[in-house]
Amino acid sequence: MSVIQFGEPGRFAMPIPLRSDFDASQLRALARKTKNAAQARRLLALAAIYEGAARTEAARIGGVTLQIVRDWVLKFNAEGPEGLIDRKPPGQPSRLTDQHRQLLVQMIEAGPIPAVHGVVRWRLADLIQWLWDEHRLPISKQTLSREVRALGYRKLSARPRHHAKSDAAVAAFKKTYPRVWRKATHEAHGKPLEIWFADEARIGQKNKITRRWARRGTRPSAARDLRTASTYIFGAICPAHGKGAGLVLPRCTTQAMNEHLKEIAQAVAPGAHAVLLLDRAGWHVSRKLQVPPNITLVPLPAKAPELNPVENIWQYMRENWISNRVFTSYTDILDHCCAAWNKLTEQPWTIMSIGLRDWAHGF
Hints:
With about 375 residues, this protein is α/β, with parallel strands linked by helices. The protein is built from 14 helices and seven strands. It has a five-stranded mixed beta sheet, sandwiched between helices. It is elongated. The protein starts with a strand and ends with a helix.
């Protein structure tokens, strides 16, 4: 049995034996296999002890003091090679208890009441104030951010929701959508089907200002135009294939919609049939529409824009390419709208990420 003696020179110290179920060759083999550099160094130091090396030699191999070698021996004897891996210190225990976390989840899920809380969305500062007012619990913004993220929450963009939406109508549409799909399959006479979504967005000189990165404590500025020249992007996407078809037109009319349908019909794969989901705007349901033979129109429920992922496409385009601009003329608006749509269609992965919906593509 290998032993190593610790203590000050000239003073009595009890030798500490190394456990007998390992030997030097085993520790050297483990040191070669491990990906933890610190553990490998400690294993080699203890392997030298198994071979009869002095404690000073083991300390030299490990690059530490004699006391630390002693600590390694104690950890190795207690836990084996795993005891030689550094563990992350537990740190200060969280001030939030499980009960606090449950109440925090309830507050986030319920959302604020503007008349009571004075805000329309929760900020970390508001939740910090609520924890203090209700539970006299002081907590920093950084700590609460870690806790909220650990609970599975992230700051995400909200989908548009009409204030008068009928949840029952939306649920019924999602439930009956597979039947609509089968009906479209029958109309397509066995051709492959593509699911498309279409919508329009007004882009004008009276533009929006979005959030931007800036140094803490400063207030960034962006130019804002109050002129009223504008145009419309007619956009349609096929999320499953990452395709898009769009036109920039001066106004929303049945004639403009007919031109857009022709554009979509050309983007549908040869020999395929498109199911085009769109809202119930007047130019979408007009009897004067000239629907191409490779397209079947499926109106979405009224007042349910969150069912149409093109709404999120507009949000993405505004935040990244269109907002925070001053358009010098109508032609300038057209150029930027065309450039933004072309940039989108060059990123099929973006169309897929934003546009795929379980209820529409998950069967």
